[in-house]
């Protein structure tokens, strides 16, 4: 049967969310002839709709439904209602992402084995590893057109990169380049090369950056096997007396409740919404929420160790011109406990415009210490620090029954406190980042605190043993065979790398698995 | 000034300018404030003119940029001049003035040195009033497209074809 599908069609796979996980999975399944209904809470925005304006774009794309926060992370103080800076739209956060596309390092698949017993950390090895993931990474890199992989050239360096590179070389760093980016350096896959516009975070108006919104989604729809329902906000996932999921209840844009029957349900709503949906689907058979016999649903929330370093020079840099994140130093991404922490971190170029710099340079700060920094905006360079953070059982997403969203559903509370390893790593990264800029003559540097999270991971983690996590090696929940998790929430550990490439690789692999199991009649 | 009942009993003489020591603004009369150099003028309909002038000075003291003219601070706080906010703003500014008087000044606007005004603000920075004004300024001031060029920021670039041919890598001092 071809799309659109009937609400009572119980042969379809329902995919919840259309970002790097759900959007890719939906298309990959559709390409294999599987009927898919994708439910997307947001609307559809394409390159012609994106705006080169930070706050206006935020208003257009960001997920701003209510959420609450707790824990000692500074985001909870500075942005208490906005724990994450992610997107509510067809294509999800692939509209907003910077495009950095890095494979995990082999040892990062084996966090517990590599790092040993880290007090207070709930470390676990992934049930899969580098060798198994290699071909899926290669497919993901080809899909995204990742620069500096499989023979594709790198992007040219912009002003912000040239400052960063010079400082890195002065410091003796060796693994320094313009990144492996899902942003075209030359025509690829019917998409233009980067025009150095500088608004990667606001949606690429050229389509030079890969986004599911204008690649996987329309291609899936073109097969006739994929129907994307926009502004469809999932309330709960239903199940039968056999403990199999049978369908999904969702609100349409007018607040009418519908129920789409399903053969299989794949949840890809990001690491806040995915566990929230499982928890909001609690029933008499599953009083703690779906797929939660381990008690791990919502736990082990990871957001990467992050921070930024901005620096002021005596001459102009104009960091906002050009690709936002095409620059990386990888020398610190190794595991080297002699630095005082386990795991590693990447240093990546980053620029913000004046409106976001004012909001994020030092949230809450005022007076001349702050404004004299902004006065030097034209002479600033910037980098982002991103490293592996420790999974902790107490860092978790729970339901806040005191706060309801626009549909009357309890919202997600996001509780996070840094692990001592995260703090030690951040302090090291600040010091190295400041040294990079001081090596090229920075007159002032700013160790800038984390922004609302963009890398949200781990709240339905993958485990070999059903006791330790929520899903198995295929992202299939241990408890319910026809319920899958297809986003970053299945991450067992976070690794140092930006997660999108791994989410995409896992989605391609999961689609392959689901389609073959369906053919075999085992799903 | 556009009140239906007109200026409330103010004579022409009462409209005499009252210059403040610290601020760049004059309170001209009921509902009307102008800059000393006449670079900007605005009407207020709910707040007392003195209150609004003090609010503008407070905004500048929170985010002082010597190259940004008062008119941008005026725009940043103009939204508080409505009936939803006026009681809260009047009360907050009254506290500010009382704090200034407690330090021997006639009022906040009459506190001549920025450091003395900043001391007053530091003592109230945890208050809801201060945080509301500060938080509002983050977008109210810095999201004005007209202030961006003062920082050198060029804003939207898509319509100009990005920077691929316009200096994305033109740094020349490294």
From TrEMBL, chain A:
Keywords recorded for this protein, A-Z: FAD, Flavoprotein, Oxidoreductase
SUPFAM superfamilies for the chain: FAD-linked reductases, C-terminal domain, FAD/NAD(P)-binding domain
Domain Glucose-methanol-choline oxidoreductase C-terminal, chain residue ranges per copy: 391-507
GO molecular function annotation: flavin adenine dinucleotide binding; oxidoreductase activity, acting on CH-OH group of donors
Domain Glucose-methanol-choline oxidoreductase N-terminal: 88-305
Keyword Iron: no
The keyword Flavoprotein belongs to this UniProt entry's keyword annotation: yes
Membership in a protein family: Belongs to the GMC oxidoreductase family.
Name of this protein: 2-keto-gluconate dehydrogenase
Automatic annotation (TrEMBL), chain B:
Domain of life: Bacteria
Protein known as: Twin-arginine translocation pathway signal
Lineage: Bacteria, Pseudomonadati, Pseudomonadota, Alphaproteobacteria, Hyphomicrobiales
